[in-house]
Protein 1
Amino acid sequence: MFAAYAARIDRDQPLNGLELGDRPAPEARPGWTTVNVKAASLNHHDLWSLRGVGLAEDKLPMILGCDAAGIDQDGNEVVLHSVIGQAGYGVGPREGRSILTEKYQGAFAEQVTVPEWNVLPKPKELSFEEAACLPTAWLTAYRMLFTNAGVRPGDSVLVQGAGGGVATAAIVLGKAAGLKVFATSRDEAKRKRALELGAVEAVESGARLPQRVDAVIETVGAATWSHSIKSLKPGGTVVISGATSGDRPSHAELTRVFFLELKIVGSTMGSKDELEDLLSFCAATGVRPVIDETLPLDRAREGFERMEAGGQFGKIVLTV
């Protein structure tokens, strides 16, 4: 079957390790099901995999892609929950959690096989392309906002780095949930798009906000860390799920953290139950993922190049 896969690890030039071509179709295994992929979406996780982060050389070649929607063996339209092993379904009871493509072949292919437990019904209101955007970036944003930040309608939140998948999702979900959303970006066009999606104000990265906020959604890391801490109300919360600009800020703002009793919460992906809630939320409210570009699978390299350059606003989707 045709697939986009990591053939080599290259930490400096990750796309040098990306190959497109034939790979073996998945084999049947007890407790697992094979899904015919209709759409899959790119994440920065795929670029990090090509750099060897979370993907060991002895696992190569590895089909990339942890987000997908398609049709299962019984003809049902489904969405994949891409965290394998956290509850022991379909794998050994002592196996720790991993994201699809770290240990098991991914979804940038005509077929993917996952534990039966990892398959959820796709709401009829969502297209395959829309559903394929949800399991990583949108689920991460959902958990950051509503589980780990604990914000409520009427609260205020700052989303750093508008344009990325998680940040875009946080703006849309926050607006739909009645939050007052502020956003930052270095790019004027991305700030304008953030306003169109529901942010009440979008400012340049590092610029002073008109008010302090209850929570910050942080995926950028070192470049925005000080600004995130300084933007919080006393007792506020930074929820961090990524560090695309690096994980070592020049100033940790520790004095401000303890004096204002700020909370710093790490967040990774989300649970199957949260993904089910997110799917229902989108179906019921009309909220839809922001799709930057849709490409056929055989043009996957173009999507990777666009994501690496940081030019996208929203998700890049591959169709099979």
Protein 2
Amino acid sequence: MTAQDSATPRMPIAVNASLVNGGTLLALLAVGMFSLTFPATVWALDGLGPWSVVACRAVLAALLAGGFLLAGRVPPPDRRHWGGLFAVAAGCVVGFPLLTTLALESSTTSHAAVVVGLLPVTTAVYATLRTGARHSRAFWVAAVAGAVVVIAFALYQSGGRPGTGDLYLFAALLVCASGYAEGGRLARELPGWQVIAWALVLCLPAGAAGAAAALALEPVHVTAKATAGLGWLAFSQFVSMWLWYRAMAATGVARAGQLQLLQPLLTLVWSVALLGERLAPAAPVAAGAVLVCIAVTQRT
């Protein structure tokens, strides 16, 4: 065997490592944007009702995404992709924003952030059932440990009994996990930005009708906070998901999903800095435990 022959098998390994590292950076950037979602929602609720926030957010994001599709002259996806796109639309464009917005009417941002910390585990489980992926025992132990930490913290904050807001949040976890996993699967065949763009465009007709109805029925008070919050939600709905699906295509759904354990920690910071909320004393302990779980899942 020549030196050239012996070097040849190593090339795909280097390429794969580069893809994984690049995907990890994209996932971290997306998670940073995700972490501002709850504070921005609270700001938007300062001047709009929950249904108005969700519908207007979807419409503005769909118009932005549609502009990119038109500018790039992107042809419609194949028929085989539409089922997954509907799952993305139902989970990430409609279900998760609506359920979390309703939850934030009765829950604090910090409490909601900790509960949604379960999303990486629910995403990994859904992806495993959907794609047949296999992971090591250490991966699952660390993932479940992270879930136990956020559940314990959530129960501690709510006095040991889940409230209405928690029920909305747990339902949001289920629908969002399917949207994440289906989007990550589609992003292996379509560019990540096209996955979320087509999902948003699918929701545009219903979103426009919903926005018109909600704005007519709910009180509207145009404030600087409400405008800024709604603007960020619409921008992030498209751009952060664009980055997220590219990340999942490069690193795998479950691996990228574990990085989202950082999201509740970042949101806790924003809840204090932007909303003036007071954190429970156990927050630093929970944060440290979750970071350990992230390190383990990434190593495995």
